[in-house]
Amino acid sequence: MEAPVAGGAAQARATSPPPRESHARGARRAESSTEPRVLFSWLVRSLRLACLGLALGLLQGVAGCGDDPRPPPFSPGGGSSGGSPAQGTGGRLPVDECERPPDPGDTSLCGNEVVPVLQQKPNLYFVLDVSGSMSLPMDGGATTRLEVAKTALKNLLLEMGHRINYGVAVFPGPGPDPSGDGSCGRGEELFETQEGDPIRCAGDRRLGPVLTSLVRVMNPIVPAGGTPLAATLNGALPRLSTLEGTSAVVLITDGAPNCGLTPCEAEECMLSVEGYSYMGARCDADLNCCDPDVIGAPLAALNCVDRSASLAAVEKLAAAGIKTYVVGIPGTEFYVDLLDQLAEAGGTAQEGSRKYFAISDSNALQDALQAIGNDVAVTCDIALQSDDFSPHLTNVYFDSSLVPFDETDGWTSTDQTIHLHGTYCDDLLAGGVVNVQVVSGCPTVVR
């Protein structure tokens, strides 16, 4: 979160983090303040068969693991590199394939038919806060909050991009701006929702063309401006509503939303909550720095916590069947009640005292994103679409390792669904399995 700026968007400084400037000219932080499902669908892409030496390449075209030659799109807060927000990854690249047809000499599996699995990938839409305060360091080092978030997102999509479709929006952006100075522009889509790279990329731990393109368009972004969350989510809803399958929003932020125009009392004024002063006096109940009449700043209300509008935006998403996961990194400790409310409104409240994912460091951020990805994209119930499925002539494999038929620690089936149990289900949900294969043709191995 960043308080908006009067007279121009805040620019991230390379040497030291900027103070949280505001539309109340002269406001500064006081010295005493503290800175602080849908189905697992990608299961049959890179299938390996032996016995009869059958090679089935269930591919939608060979995808390369090279670089995307297209230039990056706009860079919020850092100027524009030309063009409009990213709309995909461009043309196909020279073949350096992440996904290849199965090796006919691979004798690790037995069978002569792959049992098809229903393929309906969920959509994960990441909404990333790139406000000025995201330039502050994280983990006690020189790496900024934004860089930590970028790295965690890249690592997540490298590991499980083959299981999902994903897109990214950042805020603030080039959209309508009530401040008039570029600090509160509505965030817009940076990367169009699309299918991730093939499963082979995850197995080889290499960036495929889709993730490469995302990294390239995210690299130029520098933190600047305020936190227009409500406008950003409202702007994303029409596009998200057109996506096929189940969709979920993952909000990554370091504070509270602002950039609204509704005046507020001092307890909802971010300048008071975070311990700013104005003209040498501390912002508090006696000096409401978000009241234009008190401090003579017409846009002072932009520094109010935009609670009602942000909750309403998340509720609209929920009404459209789109959950919102809330990930709060350092900086959100001032606003835990609001982030809890957003998580509850988004249908993703966590067990325990904190309902949102309260993150303290980069490792916790990576774990939280992994948990969210698994919650959305992985299930221990695997639906099949083959009418020829025979539970007596079927075996299940995790990355070429046999999963025995066992109702306690293995797999069972009902109708056209495979059910995983015990440690095998745990491993799958924990993200420890890259490829699940259901293969027919040999007698089922029972524990």
Rg computed from alpha carbons, rounded to a whole number of angstroms: 24 Å
Distance between the termini: 54 Å
Secondary-structure-based class equals: alpha/beta
**Sheet with the most strands?**
6 strands, mixed
Q: What is the topological layout?
A:
Elements: E1 27-29, E2 113-114, E3 123-129, H1 145-160, E4 165-171, E5 188-195, H2 199-204, H3 209-218, H4 229-241, E6 247-253, H5 270-273, E7 276-278, E8 281-282, H6 292-295, H7 307-319, E9 323-328, H8 336-345, E10 357-358, H9 362-377, E11 381-383, E12 394-398, E13 401-403, E14 411-414, E15 417-420, H10 422-429, E16 436-440
Parallel strand pairs: 3-4, 3-6, 6-9, 9-10
Antiparallel strand pairs: 1-7, 2-16, 4-5, 7-8, 11-15, 12-13, 12-16, 14-15
What does it look like?
- It is a single chain.
- α1 packs parallel to α9 and α7 (307-319) packs parallel to α8 (336-345).
- Among the domains are: 64-97 and 121-265 and 301-377, Rossmann fold; 386-440, no CATH class.
- It contains 10 helices and 16 strands.
- The model is unreliable at 5-21, 31-97 and 99-105 (pLDDT under 50).
- The strands form 4 sheets. The protein has a 6-stranded mixed beta sheet with strand order 5-4-3-6-9-10, sandwiched between helices. A 4-stranded antiparallel beta sheet has the order 2-16-12-13, with no helix packed on it. The chain has a 3-stranded antiparallel beta sheet with strand order 1-7-8.
- By secondary structure, the chain is of the alpha/beta class.
